[in-house]
Protein backbone atom coordinates (compact mmCIF):
# COMPACT_ATOMS: atom_id res chain seq x y z
CA UNK A 1 0.00 0.00 0.00
CA UNK A 2 1.31 3.46 -0.90
CA UNK A 3 2.73 5.87 1.63
CA UNK A 4 2.62 9.64 1.17
CA UNK A 5 5.18 12.25 2.20
CA UNK A 6 4.16 15.90 1.91
CA UNK A 7 7.12 18.27 1.77
CA UNK A 8 6.22 21.91 2.35
CA UNK A 9 7.75 24.97 3.96
CA UNK A 10 4.61 25.62 6.01
CA UNK A 11 1.47 23.66 6.87
CA UNK A 12 -1.67 25.37 8.09
CA UNK A 13 -4.16 28.10 7.28
CA UNK A 14 -1.52 30.40 5.81
CA UNK A 15 -2.24 30.72 2.09
CA UNK A 16 -4.56 29.36 -0.56
CA UNK A 17 -1.90 26.77 -1.37
CA UNK A 18 -1.53 25.49 2.20
CA UNK A 19 -5.29 25.43 2.79
CA UNK A 20 -5.70 23.42 -0.41
CA UNK A 21 -3.16 20.86 0.83
CA UNK A 22 -5.19 20.46 4.03
CA UNK A 23 -8.44 19.96 2.12
CA UNK A 24 -6.79 17.40 -0.15
CA UNK A 25 -5.26 15.42 2.74
CA UNK A 26 -8.59 15.25 4.55
CA UNK A 27 -10.00 13.36 1.58
CA UNK A 28 -7.16 11.05 0.54
CA UNK A 29 -5.26 10.26 3.76
CA UNK A 30 -7.14 7.00 4.40
CA UNK A 31 -6.03 5.62 1.04
CA UNK A 32 -2.40 5.52 2.17
CA UNK A 33 -0.71 3.23 4.70
CA UNK A 34 1.02 6.27 6.17
CA UNK A 35 0.94 10.03 5.57
CA UNK A 36 3.77 12.23 6.87
CA UNK A 37 4.12 16.01 6.52
CA UNK A 38 7.70 17.31 6.61
CA UNK A 39 7.62 21.04 7.29
CA UNK A 40 9.39 23.99 8.90
CA UNK A 41 6.33 25.72 10.26
CA UNK A 42 2.79 24.94 11.39
CA UNK A 43 -0.02 26.92 12.97
CA UNK A 44 -1.22 23.88 14.87
CA UNK A 45 -3.67 22.66 12.24
CA UNK A 46 -4.08 18.89 12.53
CA UNK A 47 -5.47 16.31 10.13
CA UNK A 48 -6.47 13.07 11.85
CA UNK A 49 -4.07 10.23 11.06
CA UNK A 50 -1.41 12.49 9.55
CA UNK A 51 2.06 12.55 11.15
CA UNK A 52 4.34 15.58 11.31
CA UNK A 53 8.11 15.91 11.23
CA UNK A 54 9.27 19.42 12.07
CA UNK A 55 12.61 20.76 10.87
CA UNK A 56 14.48 23.98 11.61
CA UNK A 57 16.01 24.84 8.23
CA UNK A 58 15.06 24.38 4.59
CA UNK A 59 17.97 22.04 3.92
CA UNK A 60 16.61 19.74 6.63
CA UNK A 61 13.47 19.16 4.59
CA UNK A 62 15.44 17.02 2.12
CA UNK A 63 17.51 15.10 4.66
CA UNK A 64 14.43 14.33 6.75
CA UNK A 65 12.56 13.10 3.67
CA UNK A 66 15.53 10.94 2.71
CA UNK A 67 15.68 9.38 6.16
CA UNK A 68 11.93 8.82 6.15
CA UNK A 69 11.69 6.94 2.87
CA UNK A 70 15.00 5.05 3.34
CA UNK A 71 14.78 3.19 0.03
CA UNK A 72 11.16 2.08 0.53
CA UNK A 73 9.59 2.08 -2.99
CA UNK A 74 6.06 2.49 -1.64
CA UNK A 75 6.57 6.19 -0.90
CA UNK A 76 5.12 8.87 -3.19
CA UNK A 77 5.32 12.62 -2.60
CA UNK A 78 3.34 15.83 -2.78
CA UNK A 79 4.59 19.40 -3.05
CA UNK A 80 2.71 22.71 -2.86
CA UNK A 81 5.66 25.12 -2.96
CA UNK A 82 9.10 25.78 -4.44
CA UNK A 83 10.92 23.14 -2.34
CA UNK A 84 9.30 20.20 -4.10
CA UNK A 85 12.47 19.34 -6.03
CA UNK A 86 13.92 17.98 -2.78
CA UNK A 87 11.56 14.99 -3.10
CA UNK A 88 13.23 14.02 -6.37
CA UNK A 89 16.62 14.27 -4.67
CA UNK A 90 15.22 11.86 -2.06
CA UNK A 91 14.24 9.49 -4.92
CA UNK A 92 10.51 10.01 -4.31
CA UNK A 93 8.25 10.44 -7.36
CA UNK A 94 5.93 13.35 -6.62
CA UNK A 95 3.03 15.52 -7.70
CA UNK A 96 3.52 19.26 -7.54
CA UNK A 97 0.57 21.67 -7.51
CA UNK A 98 1.44 25.10 -8.86
CA UNK A 99 -0.59 27.74 -7.02
CA UNK A 100 1.78 30.61 -7.72
CA UNK A 101 1.60 33.94 -9.52
CA UNK A 102 5.10 33.83 -11.01
CA UNK A 103 6.16 35.16 -13.42
CA UNK A 104 3.28 37.69 -13.54
CA UNK A 105 4.11 39.20 -10.17
CA UNK A 106 7.75 39.82 -11.07
CA UNK A 107 7.38 43.43 -12.20
CA UNK A 108 4.87 44.63 -9.61
CA UNK A 109 7.48 46.05 -7.26
CA UNK A 110 11.22 46.28 -6.81
CA UNK A 111 11.00 43.78 -3.98
CA UNK A 112 9.15 41.21 -6.09
CA UNK A 113 11.60 41.75 -8.95
CA UNK A 114 14.49 40.83 -6.66
CA UNK A 115 12.59 37.86 -5.19
CA UNK A 116 11.90 36.56 -8.68
CA UNK A 117 15.56 35.64 -9.15
CA UNK A 118 15.14 33.10 -6.35
CA UNK A 119 11.55 31.90 -6.70
CA UNK A 120 11.22 31.48 -10.47
CA UNK A 121 14.29 29.20 -10.83
CA UNK A 122 13.20 27.23 -7.76
CA UNK A 123 9.70 26.69 -9.18
CA UNK A 124 11.10 25.73 -12.58
CA UNK A 125 13.31 23.15 -10.89
CA UNK A 126 10.39 21.79 -8.84
CA UNK A 127 8.14 21.58 -11.90
CA UNK A 128 10.78 19.93 -14.09
CA UNK A 129 11.47 17.21 -11.51
CA UNK A 130 7.81 16.49 -10.70
CA UNK A 131 6.30 13.37 -12.24
CA UNK A 132 3.07 15.35 -12.66
CA UNK A 133 2.43 19.08 -12.29
CA UNK A 134 -1.11 20.04 -11.41
CA UNK A 135 -2.26 23.55 -12.28
CA UNK A 136 -5.23 25.31 -10.70
CA UNK A 137 -5.97 27.29 -13.86
CA UNK A 138 -5.52 26.74 -17.59
CA UNK A 139 -4.07 30.23 -17.76
CA UNK A 140 -1.08 29.46 -15.56
CA UNK A 141 -0.50 26.08 -17.19
CA UNK A 142 -0.09 27.85 -20.53
CA UNK A 143 1.67 30.89 -19.11
CA UNK A 144 4.31 29.13 -17.03
CA UNK A 145 4.23 25.65 -15.60
CA UNK A 146 3.22 23.73 -18.71
CA UNK A 147 6.41 24.90 -20.42
CA UNK A 148 8.61 22.99 -17.98
CA UNK A 149 6.53 20.04 -16.79
CA UNK A 150 7.16 16.40 -17.67
CA UNK A 151 3.38 15.96 -17.53
CA UNK A 152 0.88 18.73 -16.92
CA UNK A 153 -2.83 18.78 -16.11
CA UNK A 154 -5.44 21.09 -14.58
CA UNK A 155 -7.42 20.27 -11.45
CA UNK A 156 -9.37 23.14 -9.98
CA UNK A 157 -9.30 23.76 -6.24
CA UNK A 158 -12.50 23.11 -4.37
CA UNK A 159 -14.40 25.79 -2.51
CA UNK A 160 -15.19 26.20 1.18
CA UNK A 161 -18.64 27.73 0.74
CA UNK A 162 -20.97 26.05 -1.73
CA UNK A 163 -23.98 27.79 -3.24
CA UNK A 164 -26.31 26.77 -0.46
CA UNK A 165 -27.39 30.18 0.78
CA UNK A 166 -30.75 31.34 -0.51
CA UNK A 167 -30.07 34.24 -2.82
CA UNK A 168 -32.23 37.24 -2.04
CA UNK A 169 -31.64 40.53 -3.79
CA UNK A 170 -30.29 42.95 -1.16
CA UNK A 171 -32.45 46.03 -0.64
CA UNK A 172 -29.46 48.31 -1.24
CA UNK A 173 -26.25 48.01 -3.21
CA UNK A 174 -23.34 46.68 -1.19
CA UNK A 175 -20.03 45.60 -2.69
CA UNK A 176 -17.48 43.08 -1.46
CA UNK A 177 -13.82 42.26 -1.98
CA UNK A 178 -11.85 39.28 -0.65
CA UNK A 179 -8.12 38.77 -0.15
CA UNK A 180 -5.28 39.75 2.13
CA UNK A 181 -4.78 43.50 2.07
CA UNK A 182 -1.62 44.20 0.12
CA UNK A 183 -0.51 46.20 -2.90
CA UNK A 184 -0.96 43.34 -5.37
CA UNK A 185 -4.63 42.93 -4.55
CA UNK A 186 -5.65 46.47 -3.66
CA UNK A 187 -3.21 48.87 -5.29
CA UNK A 188 -5.61 49.32 -8.20
CA UNK A 189 -8.54 49.54 -5.77
CA UNK A 190 -7.03 52.68 -4.26
CA UNK A 191 -6.69 54.15 -7.76
CA UNK A 192 -10.29 53.28 -8.68
CA UNK A 193 -11.70 54.68 -5.44
CA UNK A 194 -9.70 57.86 -5.90
CA UNK A 195 -11.36 58.67 -9.20
CA UNK A 196 -15.00 57.72 -8.46
CA UNK A 197 -17.60 60.11 -7.13
CA UNK A 198 -17.82 59.14 -3.44
CA UNK A 199 -21.46 60.16 -3.27
CA UNK A 200 -22.28 57.43 -5.81
CA UNK A 201 -20.33 54.67 -4.09
CA UNK A 202 -22.20 52.03 -2.13
CA UNK A 203 -20.47 50.48 0.91
CA UNK A 204 -17.50 48.23 0.11
CA UNK A 205 -16.67 45.48 2.61
CA UNK A 206 -13.13 44.06 2.34
CA UNK A 207 -12.40 40.66 3.89
CA UNK A 208 -8.80 39.67 4.48
CA UNK A 209 -5.80 39.91 6.75
CA UNK A 210 -3.94 43.24 6.66
CA UNK A 211 -0.49 42.47 5.26
CA UNK A 212 0.43 45.96 4.06
CA UNK A 213 -0.54 48.64 6.59
CA UNK A 214 0.20 51.42 4.09
CA UNK A 215 -2.41 50.09 1.65
CA UNK A 216 -4.85 49.56 4.52
CA UNK A 217 -4.40 53.18 5.60
CA UNK A 218 -5.02 54.40 2.05
CA UNK A 219 -8.20 52.32 1.83
CA UNK A 220 -9.48 53.61 5.18
CA UNK A 221 -9.48 57.19 3.92
CA UNK A 222 -12.55 56.41 1.84
CA UNK A 223 -15.71 56.55 3.97
CA UNK A 224 -17.43 53.83 1.95
CA UNK A 225 -14.65 51.26 2.60
CA UNK A 226 -14.96 48.92 5.58
CA UNK A 227 -12.08 46.57 6.41
CA UNK A 228 -13.67 43.48 7.95
CA UNK A 229 -10.51 41.49 8.65
CA UNK A 230 -10.14 37.76 8.17
CA UNK A 231 -13.29 35.74 8.90
CA UNK A 232 -14.20 32.06 8.71
CA UNK A 233 -17.39 32.55 6.73
CA UNK A 234 -18.72 35.32 4.52
CA UNK A 235 -22.39 35.92 3.75
CA UNK A 236 -21.96 36.41 0.01
CA UNK A 237 -25.69 36.71 -0.56
CA UNK A 238 -25.75 40.08 1.21
CA UNK A 239 -23.83 41.68 -1.66
CA UNK A 240 -24.76 42.94 -5.09
CA UNK A 241 -21.29 42.75 -6.68
CA UNK A 242 -17.87 41.23 -6.04
CA UNK A 243 -14.90 43.39 -7.03
CA UNK A 244 -11.45 42.07 -7.91
CA UNK A 245 -8.76 44.69 -8.49
CA UNK A 246 -5.74 42.36 -8.30
CA UNK A 247 -2.74 43.16 -10.47
CA UNK A 248 -2.04 39.41 -10.77
CA UNK A 249 -3.78 36.17 -9.81
CA UNK A 250 -3.82 32.49 -10.57
CA UNK A 251 -7.51 31.69 -10.04
CA UNK A 252 -8.97 32.80 -6.67
CA UNK A 253 -11.70 30.47 -5.39
CA UNK A 254 -13.38 33.38 -3.57
CA UNK A 255 -14.59 34.50 -6.99
CA UNK A 256 -16.15 31.08 -7.58
CA UNK A 257 -17.81 31.22 -4.16
CA UNK A 258 -19.34 34.56 -5.10
CA UNK A 259 -20.58 33.30 -8.45
CA UNK A 260 -22.22 30.28 -6.81
CA UNK A 261 -24.20 32.75 -4.69
CA UNK A 262 -25.17 34.52 -7.94
CA UNK A 263 -23.10 37.57 -7.05
CA UNK A 264 -21.73 39.05 -10.30
CA UNK A 265 -18.00 39.71 -10.46
CA UNK A 266 -16.28 42.85 -11.79
CA UNK A 267 -12.59 42.17 -12.34
CA UNK A 268 -9.47 43.14 -14.18
CA UNK A 269 -8.32 40.57 -16.73
CA UNK A 270 -5.63 38.76 -14.74
CA UNK A 271 -4.75 35.09 -14.36
CA UNK A 272 -7.46 32.55 -15.04
CA UNK A 273 -10.39 34.72 -13.98
CA UNK A 274 -11.98 34.63 -17.43
CA UNK A 275 -12.20 30.85 -17.08
CA UNK A 276 -15.11 31.41 -14.69
CA UNK A 277 -16.23 35.03 -15.10
CA UNK A 278 -18.05 34.82 -18.42
CA UNK A 279 -20.37 37.53 -19.83
CA UNK A 280 -23.30 35.77 -18.12
CA UNK A 281 -21.63 36.10 -14.71
CA UNK A 282 -19.96 39.49 -14.68
CA UNK A 283 -17.56 41.74 -16.48
CA UNK A 284 -13.80 41.50 -17.05
CA UNK A 285 -11.90 44.59 -18.22
CA UNK A 286 -8.31 45.16 -19.26
CA UNK A 287 -5.88 45.23 -16.35
CA UNK A 288 -5.27 48.76 -15.17
CA UNK A 289 -8.13 50.30 -17.21
CA UNK A 290 -9.59 52.32 -14.34
CA UNK A 291 -12.25 54.00 -16.46
CA UNK A 292 -13.58 50.70 -17.80
CA UNK A 293 -13.61 49.26 -14.28
CA UNK A 294 -15.56 52.27 -12.98
CA UNK A 295 -18.08 51.94 -15.81
CA UNK A 296 -18.59 48.24 -15.06
CA UNK A 297 -18.93 48.99 -11.36
CA UNK A 298 -21.83 51.39 -11.92
CA UNK A 299 -23.46 49.58 -14.85
CA UNK A 300 -26.98 48.27 -14.29
CA UNK A 301 -26.29 44.99 -16.06
CA UNK A 302 -28.24 41.82 -15.34
CA UNK A 303 -26.64 38.40 -15.47
CA UNK A 304 -28.23 35.00 -16.11
CA UNK A 305 -25.34 32.98 -14.59
CA UNK A 306 -25.79 30.44 -17.36
CA UNK A 307 -22.88 28.14 -18.16
CA UNK A 308 -21.02 25.12 -16.87
CA UNK A 309 -21.67 23.79 -13.38
CA UNK A 310 -19.12 25.52 -11.17
CA UNK A 311 -20.26 23.64 -8.07
CA UNK A 312 -19.28 20.35 -9.70
CA UNK A 313 -16.03 21.66 -11.18
CA UNK A 314 -14.77 23.39 -8.02
CA UNK A 315 -15.56 20.50 -5.70
CA UNK A 316 -12.93 19.12 -3.33
CA UNK A 317 -14.35 15.58 -3.36
CA UNK A 318 -14.19 15.44 -7.15
CA UNK A 319 -10.75 17.05 -7.23
CA UNK A 320 -9.40 14.65 -4.58
CA UNK A 321 -10.48 11.65 -6.67
CA UNK A 322 -8.53 13.03 -9.62
CA UNK A 323 -5.46 13.55 -7.46
CA UNK A 324 -5.63 10.00 -6.11
CA UNK A 325 -5.71 8.60 -9.64
CA UNK A 326 -2.53 10.56 -10.36
CA UNK A 327 -0.87 9.20 -7.21
CA UNK A 328 -1.72 5.63 -8.24
CA UNK A 329 -0.09 6.33 -11.59
CA UNK A 330 3.20 7.19 -9.88
CA UNK A 331 3.66 3.58 -8.76
CA UNK A 332 2.87 1.89 -12.07
UniProtKB/TrEMBL annotation:
Keywords: Transferase. Residues 16-159 form the Glycosyltransferase subfamily 4-like N-terminal domain. This is Glycosyltransferase. InterPro entries: Glyco_trans_4-like_N. The keyword Manganese does not apply. One of its GO terms (molecular function) is transferase activity. Coiled coil: none annotated. It comes from the Bacteria. It comes from Ligilactobacillus saerimneri. Transmembrane segments: none annotated. The lineage of its organism: Bacteria, Bacillati, Bacillota, Bacilli, Lactobacillales.
Amino acid sequence: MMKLVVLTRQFGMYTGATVSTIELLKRIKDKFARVVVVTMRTDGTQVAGVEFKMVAKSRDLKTTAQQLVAGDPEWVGYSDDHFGWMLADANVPYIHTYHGNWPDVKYQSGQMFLKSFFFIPMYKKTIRKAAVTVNVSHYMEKRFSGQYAQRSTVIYNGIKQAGDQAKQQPKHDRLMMVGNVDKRKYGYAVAVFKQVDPTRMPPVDIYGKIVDEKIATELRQYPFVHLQGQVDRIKFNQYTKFLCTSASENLPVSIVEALLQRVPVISFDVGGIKEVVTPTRGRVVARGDLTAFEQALFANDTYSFAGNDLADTFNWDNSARKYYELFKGLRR
